[in-house]
Design brief:
The protein has 216 residues and is mainly α. It has ten helices and no strands. The longest helix has 36 residues.
Length: 216
């Protein structure tokens, strides 16, 4: 199970980080449109299509990556955090089979039909006169669904291991939100370090007050 979890996490992370570069492309396209429209009075016919296709692609393809890093928000997160790991794992295990897998399976099969129909007549956008092809964009639905399904299996394995051991398996190190860091350290040392400007990691670990920067 641990080997599959590592495989699924790495796969989700690879796709998530690759498609994250689409943010730069989208920002460049929107920026170009703003400059062309308001400075040169020459709006582009493709900027709107580029922005919604890239945003949708990034949103869909980052889903499995976010799931692997426990980044999705739960409806009852404020209660969930108070429970013991075994209780969390038991609830998640049940919910994955009741809601997650049926929903993702429906997404894959419905998305397949949707994409196949679009590829059949090489669909183009009706939102702009440029006629930008969007049939390839519809295939993202299927790809995202498959990645989510594979990552969901890994999450089920995580739940099973947690029920057995009483602790959640360690996740791959990645960028963490400040809120999560504060919850894990149960202190405000991280915020103090930002106020002071700099706090060596050794002092943070030891819980000591930061030294005066002029004396360092």
């Amino acid at each position: 199970m641990l080997r599959y979890i590592a495989f699924a996490d790495d796969l989700s992370a690879w796709f998530g980080k690759v498609f994250a570069w689409g943010i730069l492309i989208m920002a460049f396209g929107v920026g170009y449109e703003v400059v062309a429209r308001y400075l040169f009075r020459a709006p582009t016919p493709w900027a709107f299509d580029l922005s919604y296709m890239l945003y949708g692609t990034i949103f869909m393809m980052a889903g499995a990556y976010t799931l692997s890093r426990d980044g999705h928000v739960r409806g009852g997160d404020f209660i969930y955090r108070l429970w013991k790991p075994r209780t969390q794992a038991r609830l998640e295990l049940v919910l994955y089979f009741i809601f997650f897998f049926p929903g993702i399976t429906a997404l894959v099969f419905s998305g397949w039909k949707y994409a196949a129909r679009s590829w059949g007549y090489l669909e183009v956008s009706s939102n702009s006169p440029a006629g930008v092809p969007i049939f390839q964009f519809k295939a993202v639905i299927v790809a995202a669904g498959i990645l989510l399904f594979l990552q969901g299996v890994a999450q089920v394995f995580r739940c099973i291991l947690c029920i057995r051991t009483g602790e959640w398996p360690k996740q791959a190190e990645d960028v963490e939100e400040l809120e999560k860091v504060l919850l894990e350290t149960k202190s405000l040392d991280v915020l103090k370090s930002e106020d002071e400007g700099f706090l060596p990691s050794r002092e943070l670990d030891a819980g000591r007050e930061p030294r005066d920067r002029d004396a360092q």
